[in-house]
Write a structure and sequence with these properties.
This protein has a single domain, classed as 3-Layer(aba) Sandwich (Rossmann fold), CATH 3.40.50.1820. The chain is α/β, with parallel strands linked by helices. The protein is 41% helix and 10% strand.
């Protein structure tokens, strides 16, 4: 990180350089889950402790990630809420994050089932490979047979189609049919409801202590509703949220705007500028 990040003159180029520093955690399947989270948490703790050595104000440090990086950023922010030996994070920036493994039939999963680049089944495939789990479990998980009724009741107060604003259902949505619970599947994929993998289901006591957030969602993205629901959870606990919804956006649009001006889309450029604007106010 450089001095511009501490003076408020954060630029688009600074954002790109900063992201490049963060893409070095160990990768699955060579390094099993949760090695990736552990690497991110270790790096964040180290930087919080040594920020002044780099000329950075430790009270103005932000975690940021997109897609699975958004998952890791959210999980790191949650892991730090009770650390009294470290400076508090200033904010968290979550760019179309994956946040839950409870319901793969939310409106955005149905509407964008076949929208590139992150198809509905591909999302779960990546998740199961990340957890080193058997892909044969996919059909039961997609049907929602992987959770017992008591957990379904617990999580539906945070993850349910009724919590999604009506304007996000105009492209069509059908309530999912309830299927019988599979004890075998639940036993094998309990990591799907680990809060490191699914930060959206963290307890209220954790959510209430989180830092300010910037959440970016895209209309044409299966993960749209994960971000919308996390925004609601944070706001319900009085956490300030800056929300950027890209009406013409799709999963990966910020990546393209960051790394390739040749194939960048207007939505990605808009989203990137909103992120930079947010950073300038920190």
């Amino acid at each position: 990180m450089n001095e511009k990040m501490t003076t408020g003159s954060f630029t688009r180029q600074d954002y790109v350089k900063t992201l490049s520093l963060l893409f070095r955690y160990r990768l699955a399947p060579e390094h099993p889950y949760p090695s990736q989270f552990e690497d991110c948490l270790t790096a964040t703790i180290h930087f919080l402790r040594t920020a002044q050595d780099y000329g950075v104000d430790p009270s103005r440090i932000i975690v940021c990630g997109d897609s699975s990086g958004g998952t890791l950023s959210a999980a790191v922010a949650q892991a730090l809420v009770n650390r009294r030996d470290l400076p508090k994070l200033r904010a968290q920036i979550l760019i179309y994050p994956f946040l839950q493994g409870v319901d793969f039939n939310l409106p955005s999963y149905q509407q964008n089932d076949g929208v590139p680049v992150l198809l509905r089944e591909r999302t779960l495939t990546f998740g199961l490979k990340y957890l080193n789990e058997d892909l044969s479990l996919m059909p039961e998980i997609l049907k929602g047979s992987h959770l017992p009724e008591d957990l379904q009741l617990k999580y539906q107060k945070w993850i349910h189609s009724d919590l999604i604003p009506p304007e996000f259902k105009t492209r069509g949505y059908k309530p999912s049919t309830k299927h019988p619970f599979s004890e075998e599947v639940y036993t094998r994929i309990k990591a799907l409801i680990d809060t490191v993998f699914a930060p959206l289901i963290a307890e209220d006591s954790v959510i209430a202590q989180l830092p300010e957030a910037f959440i970016l969602t895209c209309e044409y993205d299966v993960l749209r509703d994960d971000g919308v629901l996390y925004k609601k959870r944070l706001e319900d606990h009085g956490i300030k949220v800056t929300w950027c919804h890209l009406q013409q956006g799709f999963h990966g649009t910020i990546f393209l705007a960051t790394y390739s001006r040749v194939v960048a889309f207007q939505s990605g450029n808009k989203g990137l500028e909103k992120i930079v604007d947010f950073l300038r106010l920190m």
